[in-house]
Amino acid sequence: MTDTALDRIVGLDVARVLLPLERPVRIGRTIYREREYVALRLRTAAGVEGHAIGYTRGLPLDVMVRSLVPGVLGCRVTRRAAIADALVATNVNASAALMRAVSLVDICLWDALARAAELPLWRLLGGARSRSPVMAVAGYHASERGAGAVRDEVRALVDSGYRHIKLHTSNVELVAAVVALLPPTVRLGVDVGMGWRTLAQALEIARRLDDLGLAFIEDPFPPDRWQLIGELGARLRTPLAAGEDAAGASRLAELASVVAVLRVDATASGGFAAVLDAAAIAAARGVAVMTHAFPDLHAHLAGAPPVGVVEMIPDASGVNPVGQLLARRQRVEAGDIVLSEEAGHGAPLEWDAIVQHAAEMTSHASDRDHTNEEDTGCS
Hints:
Helices cover about 30% and strands about 25% of the residues. The protein is α/β, with parallel strands linked by helices.
């Protein structure tokens, strides 16, 4: 993309998409009856597209993305960092929705850059690895399905070659039963879904989990309560993990000072550059780095050495049906995600499916000349 006229962003499509779940999902104290996403499609004058999709987490994310459109249209894809900085600087009073909105813009820009370069993003980011270990998530709907079904689910994952497994439960008896069936080559983590409110409440359960040899206990508290996470961690032998909803690289850096496993999500914390900056800080402190959700997208962070394990919610769980909205998936083989050589970030959207499931959609086209606008990413 050498012609600066051709790397101009000339169009943006924003869609809020609802996918019903087969049965409600409880994560901590939150109940999801449908998955709500925002999808973003960017187009340049050269005809190159960039795609992004992320959870709304109950935020008015589509509204926030639309508010950013004037700061993106007419700008150059090759000024990615300048665009993101300008969007943050001009919306300093916005909430967490801003960070998620900027994340989607950043991901679109990286995707367009990779497509224009005719490279997969993992190569553009350094090409450290063409495959990455996967952590498969199990244990959803445990109370309805029963412990036996969860044990069978975990056995099937082990038989398929997964070496990292996570349970979505704080049920100590269930966790102990799963630990008992795992071979020593498989590590088990537990996600308690930010369900604890006080240190005393957390310690009551966490100390019982502490004797099980877990790889980590994830999300004891929300990421903004990072000091409380640190206090809990000081009282346990089991490593703590957190970070998937952190609002930006600075909040991730705070968490990296108190956890043993930093969880990063490019769709929530500012985009690829932000989570890679935080991952580098974490790695320098000896903190492991693991991604959250959207494995097709996040696997491309394997191009950067600090990122170790990619989380995947198996499609069979029905919990994250985002695959219905993607044109292609990355291949999983013997517990690893194998990255393709297709140009882009690995999670291209099937826009017809986006339109089919959209609750709301808007399209925006550039009608301004940004030639003389400096310090905005548009010059």
